């Protein structure tokens, strides 16, 4: 009798445990009854930007962690933290171990201004600043200088608004969040009382969204300074705009036209924030002794075209704005992971079609490394489902052949062991999680994040000292390699 | 006022998909063994999912409590921090919904496939007048692809 053996379960590997990685894994697991999915993450701890990007005072946005945790607990899902793909294990090695590999490693770098003075003390990328207050290990020693009274944030996106809000929020609001203790201490000593958000284009091109703008307008102890002149002539464009753009612009206009609230006698002067439009940075100006930033020289621009595709063109006029703190919030940027993976350096993405990496069968991508570093969690969720669909289609159609035997983590484990790398399991993460929650309890915080990778590993049981030291030294090597 | 036989027939009719009141009876005058409200969800792939909820349950509650198979629904768990519970309502139901707040509209503005009768499911609570209504789950991405489901394969 001829008995056909059942097809082996397809083994899928996902690189990156942020929303893209988890939503891709979730969709594959849900819509394929047998697939096994392993999620790799370079840090010991999972969740990517949900943990390290979403602002501390936006805890509801982090609720997605619950659905990711459920996915990680699936019998057919495994999590391996503390594994840097591209160094501890290569993509070709993963392709030998799995039927399909999905790259969801996001955007760990940022776009640079490319102007003189960009590297002066007092100038930081928004990405590093956000990483700092959110406890990202590589930014824990940022020590931003908050001793000046004016900060300039270059960029008109939600990240820029997040930073403005964290800089100007009353301490008692931040104290009960999961912001790190050390950044809370630094903010307690901060002298910053004025924040300008500067953008190259106009009000109709702002990238931030209305909820975040409203939050800023309603921030206790802070006053919005918007110039009504910036909005003249926009009435008809606003009238014809789609509802989201219309409401957003109308809120800015309303705020610009509002009279400032009467100050009570003896009340402390409120902190201030404002939007400046059609200004493009030319140079960060140094202090007299050249030791730090003291201001930014800006080109005034005019707009060519309209709507989202409007371009900012210098008029020839310039302006100087004084400030001691400059935050460049002009976008995140992905980096190439492995020579075996094609990468479009100009666009900063992996060339793909519906998540199928061009020219490399069995290789897929999802999230920011696929589409570019914009969008909120729902954007990434939909995108990840799209890539998962491609994987499922290919499995169903035989384009992805799941019949050859693949060893999955079994093969990767021996590679990692030979390189002295000890992965962190999901239950290890839950021990780290419990330690952070316990530490935060005394201070009334949801958690006190552990920011030192060695401490994270120590909180995960059965980590030997020798391996910890090896990993710590390679972590340092990795962060210094990026040159920040 | 009504004979027990009439009450029984009323219950039978309610249980079917006819969707009209027998004898013009106002359902609030008559007590049923369960005052559940039936909602039909048209999923992204065209499947019709039918579930029940109690008055006051949000549509997110209905989806979660009945474990309805709608990918990615309710990511922020009803805290107005996302737009993944976006639903499209029938005109006559939409007109009678409670007024939308700025907070809901701010998040709804970010939803894909926004329509004139869109609302966030976590903000809409069931009322008896919604019984048998049909809501549509909007497309998630601009170009809809035939969804692949191999979850029943061994």
UniProtKB/TrEMBL annotation, chain A:
It is an enzyme of class 1 (oxidoreductase). Pfam families: NAD_binding_8. It comes from the Eukaryota. Its main location: mitochondrion. Keywords: Electron transport, FAD, Flavoprotein, Mitochondrion, NADP, Oxidoreductase, Transit peptide, Transport. This is NADPH:adrenodoxin oxidoreductase, mitochondrial. One of its GO terms (molecular function) is oxidoreductase activity. The keyword Electron transport applies. Its EC number is 1.18.1.6. NADP(+) binds at residues 156-159, 200-201, 212, 375. FAD binds at residues 20, 41, 49, 85, 368, 375-377. Transmembrane segments: none annotated. GO terms for cellular component: mitochondrion. It is found in: Mitochondrion. GO terms for biological process: cholesterol metabolic process. It catalyses: 2 reduced [adrenodoxin] + NADP(+) + H(+) = 2 oxidized [adrenodoxin] + NADPH. Its cofactor is FAD. Belongs to the ferredoxin--NADP reductase type 1 family. Pathway: Steroid metabolism; cholesterol metabolism.
From TrEMBL, chain B:
Keywords: 2Fe-2S, Cholesterol metabolism, Electron transport, Iron, Iron-sulfur, Lipid metabolism, Metal-binding, Mitochondrion, Steroid metabolism, Steroidogenesis, Sterol metabolism, Transport. Its main location: mitochondrion. Coiled coil: none annotated. One of its GO terms (molecular function) is metal ion binding. Pfam families: Fer2. This is Adrenal ferredoxin. CDD domains: fer2.
């Amino acid at each position: 009798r001829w008995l056909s053996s059942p097809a082996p379960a397809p083994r899928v590997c996902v690189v990156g445990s942020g929303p893209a990685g988890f939503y891709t894994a979730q969709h594959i697991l849900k819509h394929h009854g047998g697939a096994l999915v392993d999620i790799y993450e370079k840090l010991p701890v999972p969740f990517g930007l949900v943990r390290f990007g979403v602002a501390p005072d936006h805890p509801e946005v982090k609720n997605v962690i619950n659905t990711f945790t459920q996915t990680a607990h699936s019998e057919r899902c495994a999590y391996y933290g503390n594994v840097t793909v591209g160094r501890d294990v290569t993509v070709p090695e993963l392709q030998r171990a799995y039927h399909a590999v999905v790259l969801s490693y996001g955007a760990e770098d940022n776009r640079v201004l490319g102007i003189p003075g960009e590297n002066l003390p007092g100038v930081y990328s928004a990405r590093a600043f956000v990483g700092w207050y959110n406890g990202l290990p590589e930014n824990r020693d940022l020590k931003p200088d908050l001793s000046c009274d004016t900060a300039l944030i270059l960029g008109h996106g939600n990240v820029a608004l997040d930073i403005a809000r964290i800089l100007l929020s009353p301490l008692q609001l931040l104290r009960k969040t999961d912001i790190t203790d050390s950044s809370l201490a630094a903010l307690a000593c901060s002298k910053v009382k004025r924040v300008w958000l500067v953008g190259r284009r106009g009000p109709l091109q702002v990238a931030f969204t209305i909820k975040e703008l409203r939050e800023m307008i309603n921030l206790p102890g802070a006053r919005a300074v918007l110039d009504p002149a910036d909005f003249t002539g926009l009435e008809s464009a606003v009238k014809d705009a789609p509802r989201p753009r219309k409401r957003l612009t109308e809120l800015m206009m309303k705020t610009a036209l509002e009279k400032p609230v009467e100050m009570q006698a003896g009340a402390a002067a409120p902190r201030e924030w404002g939007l400046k439009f059609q200004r493009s940075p030319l140079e960060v100006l140094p202090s007299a002794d050249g030791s730090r930033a003291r201001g930014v020289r800006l080109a005034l621009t005019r707009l060519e075209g309209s709507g989202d595709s409007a371009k900012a063109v210098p008029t020839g006029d310039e302006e100087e704005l004084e400030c001691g703190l400059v935050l460049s919030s002009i976008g995140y940027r992905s980096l190439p992971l492995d020579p075996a993976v094609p990468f479009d350096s100009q666009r900063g993405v992996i060339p793909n079609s519906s998540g199928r990496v061009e020219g490399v069968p069995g290789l897929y991508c999802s999230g920011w490394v696929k589409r570019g570093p914009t969008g909120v969690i729902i954007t990434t969720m939909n995108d990840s489902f799209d890539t998962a669909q491609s994987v499922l289609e290919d499995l169903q159609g035989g384009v992805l052949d799941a019949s050859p035997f693949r060893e999955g983590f079994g093969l990767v484990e021996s590679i990692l062991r030979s390189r002295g790398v000890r992965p962190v399991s999901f239950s290890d993460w839950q021990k780290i999680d419990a330690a952070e929650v316990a530490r935060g309890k005394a201070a009334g915080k949801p958690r006190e994040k552990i920011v030192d990778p060695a401490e994270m590993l120590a909180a995960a049981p059965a980590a030997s000292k020798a391996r910890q030291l090896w990993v710590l030294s390679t972590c340092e090597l990795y962060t210094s390699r990026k040159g920040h | 006022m009504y004979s027990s036989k009439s009450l029984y027939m009323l219950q039978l009719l309610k249980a079917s998909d006819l969707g009209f009141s027998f004898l013009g009876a106002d359902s609030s005058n008559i007590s049923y063994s369960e005052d559940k409200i039936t909602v039909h969800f048209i999923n992204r792939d065209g499947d019709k999912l039918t579930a029940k909820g109690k008055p006051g349950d949000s549509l997110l509650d209905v989806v979660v409590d009945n474990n309805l198979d709608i990918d990615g629904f309710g990511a922020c768990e009803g805290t107005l921090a996302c737009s993944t519970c976006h639903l499209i309502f029938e005109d006559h139901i939409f007109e009678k919904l409670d007024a939308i707040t700025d907070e809901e509209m701010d998040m709804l503005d970010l939803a894909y496939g926004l329509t004139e009768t869109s609302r966030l499911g976590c903000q809409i609570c069931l009322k008896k007048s919604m019984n048998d209504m049909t809501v549509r789950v909007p497309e998630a991405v601009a170009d809809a692809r035939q969804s692949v489901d191999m979850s029943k394969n061994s």
